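Input sequence (374 aa), recorded before submission:
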Amino acid sequence: MVLLYIMVCFVSENFLTTSGKAQPARDFIAFWATSKLSLAGTPVAAYDMKNIMKIIHETVGLERKFTWVYPPTFQIFVLPLSLLSYQESYVMAMVVTFIMFLYSGYKLAGSSADYILPLMAFPAVYLAMIYGQNSLLTAAICMMAMHSLDRQPVLAGVLVGVLYCKPQLSVLFPLALMIGGYWRTLIVSGVTWLVTVGISLWLFGAGAWLAFLGALDKQRLSMESGSLPLQEMISVFAALRTHGASAGMAYLGHAVVALVFVAVMVVIWRLSRDPALRASSLVLASLMATPYVYEYELPWLAAPLLLMAVRGRQHGWLPWQRELLALGWVLPIICIFYFSGAILLPIFEMALMYLVAQSAYLDHTKASLANIRV
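Predicted structure, token format:
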């Protein structure tokens, strides 16, 4: 109820204005502006910040700096947004992706109604809405892919292939699928990605991909120089950079931690066949692998929190497991009121990954003892 009140205040402040122009829901204005440029026949122009800023000024009357650094494959999904007004488009996008998020989480939790209310009230949901970001959509796709992996491998492949439009968070999925032996899912994901690339080339041309690569390089330089709001990030790189480390040292520290997470994920996928442990380790490693990850991606945490809660209720709780999951549920509240994600979230993800690894090790030990007795 508290978070719902915050959202009502936010919508009142940003949309129910008397000036005749709505204030932007942070990042969503960039999606809407990109759609407007693409529908006008100038998709490459979206990668020039000046063009985005011009539309923002015309729409909301403010000088706001936003960039478009998504691949053209994601540009396909935002294409219809500007068919509606900015306010209508924002509300529609948030409502639809929120429903997708709830449904995917419900299925991932074994279709148990017990988890609907915690999902609806998960503070990360409202953080994503305040930003107007796409993380509810990508988290929903991720959770549904994990749910479908053993049940419908082809569907899982299509979903993973679509998820490749968020490359910084999907980079470890092919590795996990190879380790797990999900070759059909891996092949379907690759074909799906190629299809989306082909559609993007047909709609936007090769120039959009060249512009995307140039935008990536500019974004990297902005991140290294500190021009981006590093305090809103949740990566080890951002934590080190905000505490005085040079860009080189921050990259080094981030790489060490990321490699450890990837190694732990690989061990878990080889050690355990429990879908909950596999999916949890993959999501946590994906969040930790990239230095470019903001707090609005926290809806992805719903997957390991849900899966470890279901596992705890079914198989018994490890020491401090319930407390750690409860802490992870409330952490996004801190990010809403006080930007500290760069420090807190990597530490929490380390603790949660340790819990997942501990569960996999205990399962493996019990299985080994059972085989010895037999």
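Checked by second reader. The chain has a mean pLDDT of 89.
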